[in-house]
Design a protein that fits this description.
alpha/beta; binds phosphoric acid mono(formamide)ester; 43% helix; Rossmann fold; 13% strand; 2 domains; binds norvaline; five-stranded parallel sheet; four-stranded parallel sheet; globular
Length: 311
């Protein structure tokens, strides 16, 4: 693995991506057969959370346990990142104790600051800007399901948010067409797409505001909450604006029977997705959630065995 930190998908080279998906498949296979891989015996991961979590916290903690290491859960109430102590000092002190840091923050800059001063790898467990571990686990799920993803059509219906940004770049890297269907003012910005094209010159990105038109022939229909953590004050307005973007049975019928349904969870059932779709035969949502652990075990296995940087 060339990368030292995993902050954004762009930190990963093409060989890094291939290695991650290969190791995740191997670790998942060993786990299924009841075999133990304890490559991180004696290692500790520090988990910093400014926001709540089910999947990210549990999958990283259990993933570390399964690899023979352990994780320490640190909330903002305890460490006061940037308040009780500067991000700089937390990074320098914590990285002297642990072998890696996973952080979930509001500001993306908090994670880049942690990484700038950490002696051990920093993993982005979601910021307001991106959610790379989610996108990687999602693509791993698509690879399991389709075998090959190149040339497929991935349609994200909803808010042009942190999850959409990471998926857009990752789809571009793997030759997957990425379509966003979002209401006006909630699209990916032109600045973001311009930056993404600098990283991925042949990015195949399209904005189609009509969701029924967008999903036609989709291999993946993906949605996420309309109101991300930190946007709770906008919930009523967002639910009204995004109502036509609900992933429901008419929308799935417009996509076709080949379409697999994805949602990163937590889902607000009856808001961005209906029960019959999330629990229906085209849904991969719970396989996708489980794969967070397998894919992140590969990240941990590859990053936490790196030599630490000097003090
Ligand atoms: N998808 C995801 O990151 O879930 P949590 O917020 O529960 O970690
Ligand atoms: N976009 C959502 C993802 C949750 C995993 C949020 O930021 O709250």
């Amino acid at each position: 693995m060339d990368a030292f930190h995993l902050i954004n998908i762009s930190d990963l080279s093409d060989p890094d991506l291939a290695e991650l998906f290969r190791v995740a498949a191997e670790l998942k296979d060993a786990w299924r057969r009841g075999q133990t891989v304890d490559s991180l015996r004696g290692k500790t991961l520090g988990l910093i959370f400014e926001k709540p979590s089910l999947r990210t916290r549990v999958s990283f903690e259990v993933g570390m346990n399964q690899l023979g290491g352990r994780a320490i859960y640190l909330t903002q109430a305890e460490i006061g990142l940037g308040k009780r102590e500067s991000v700089h000092d937390v990074a320098r002190v914590l990285s002297g104790f642990v072998d890696g840091i996973m952080a979930r923050t509001f500001a993306h800059e908090t994670i880049t600051n942690l990484a700038a001063h950490s002696r051990t790898p920093v993993i982005n467990g979601l910021s307001d800007f991106s959610h790379p571990c989610q996108a990687l686990a999602d693509m791993f799920t698509a690879l399991e399901h389709f075998g090959d993803v190149r040339g497929r059509k991935w349609v994200f219906v909803g808010d042009g948010n942190n999850v959409a940004r990471s998926l857009c770049v990752l789809c571009g890297r793997l030759g997957v067409k990425f379509v966003l269907s979002a209401p006006k003012n909630y699209e990916l910005t032109e600045g973001f797409i311009a930056d993404a094209r600098r990283d991925v010159p042949d990015l195949d990105y399209q904005l189609v505001s009509d969701p029924l038109a967008a999903v036609a022939g989709a291999d993946v229909v993906y949605t996420d909450t309309f109101t991300s953590m930190g946007q709770e004050d906008e919930k009523t307005q967002r639910n009204r604006i995004f109502a036509p973007y609900q992933v429901n049975s008419p929308l799935l019928a417009a996509a076709g029977p080949q379409a697999a349904v994805f949602h990163c969870l937590p889902a607000y059932r009856g808001v961005e997705i209906t029960d019959d779709v999330i629990d229906g035969p085209q849904s991969l949502v719970f396989q996708q959630a489980e794969n967070r652990m397998h894919l992140q075990k590969a990240i941990l296995h590859l990053l936490l065995s790196k030599p630490r940087r000097p003090l």
